[in-house]
Amino acid sequence: MTDLVTSDSRLPERYRRRADEIASRVRSIDGLMVPASVEAIIAAVVRMARQFRAQPDEDQSEIGREFKAACSDLPEWAVSEAANDFLAGRVPNHTGQFMPTCAEFAKRAREIILPFLAERSALRVEAEKLVERWQDEERRNRIAIERADPAVKARAEALIAQARLGQTKALPMRQQGISPENQKRLDAMKKHRPFVSKIGHEPGKPAGE
Question: What is the pTM of this model?
Answer without folding.
Answer: 0.61
